[in-house]
Design brief:
Layout: H1 3-16, E1 28-34, H2 37-40, H3 50-66, E2 70-76, E3 79-84, H4 100-118, H5 120-123, E4 132-138, H6 141-167, H7 170-173, H8 178-187, H9 197-201, E5 203-215, E6 222-233, H10 244-247
Antiparallel strand pairs: 1-3, 1-4, 2-3, 2-5, 5-6
């Protein structure tokens, strides 16, 4: 009996007991959230800090470029929602073979590392360590757009609350709905409806095709090439009114 192999096999069996996989050929959502970001950003500009937005956008773009089968990222507040589609072809493979532990740990680690590396832009000095958590799950195709509608509705509520809390004391905003908070803002001469769309309903990282020109170094002949790039869309629609924005990616 090989004791060494027996011990290794036994240890691996403990690991394998928790090696959970998502079902194949279904839309996957990865939602990544900042941990304790209320404290992390307590000294940032309110209600919106453009440096935080920049770091969130750059983090989301990095995730889109480096997570296999990613179709879009929706960004609001300190959260990023990614849609993965791994059934475009019969031979399409899944990111980390749909292993939940690897998908959650790696996506959270990627977001934490990228945001931390950019954080000097926020704080004007050395980087401040940022931590993100992650969850992954599958949805029926019919529910994917509804998921993004839900997150966008949350973004809208957050936007109104953040604006009101930047103008009033915390206790003045307690137990008030979004309509009442908007009225408080209006009394200060600020109409929430006139805020930029990205502040009100979030933004998306989307893939677009761009035509680039260049010169062949050996022949000197000019050529054109179509390339895909991830860009920030700051003027996204209200998903409940334009479902095609998400559904075309499912």
């Amino acid at each position: 009996m090989n004791t060494k192999d027996s011990l290794g096999d036994r240890m691996k069996s403990y690991e394998s007991a928790y090696r959970i996989k998502l079902p194949i050929r279904m839309p996957i959502i990865i939602r990544i959230d900042g941990c304790h970001f209320h404290t992390y950003t307590k000294n940032c500009k309110k209600p919106v800090d453009e440096n935080v937005i920049y770091c969130m956008n750059q983090t989301a773009e990095y995730l889109c470029r480096n997570i296999q089968n990613c179709q879009i990222a929706y960004v609001q507040s300190d959260e990023i929602s990614l849609l993965l589609n791994n059934y475009q072809t019969l031979k399409a493979s899944s990111w980390f073979d749909n292993q939940v532990q690897k998908m959650t740990s790696v996506s959270a680690g990627m977001a934490s590392a990228v945001f931390t590396s950019l954080s000097g832009r926020i704080f004007g000095g050395p980087v401040e360590i940022a931590t993100f958590d992650s969850r992954v799950f599958v949805l029926p195709k019919e529910e994917v757009c509804n998921y993004f509608i839900w997150r966008q509705q949350d973004a809208t509520r957050n936007s109104v609350q953040m604006l009101a809390r930047s103008l009033y004391k915390h206790e003045d905003c307690n137990n008030k709905n979004t309509s009442q908070l908007q009225e408080l803002c209006f009394q200060k001469g600020i109409n929430w409806n006139y805020c930029p769309p990205s502040d009100k309903r979030g933004r998306c990282i989307v893939k677009t095709k761009k035509v680039k020109t260049g010169i062949q170094p050996t022949t000197g002949i000019e050529f054109t090439a179509e390339r895909s790039e991830w860009i920030v869309d700051n003027i996204i629609p209200i998903f409940s009114e334009d479902r095609s924005y998400i559904e075309k990616l499912i």
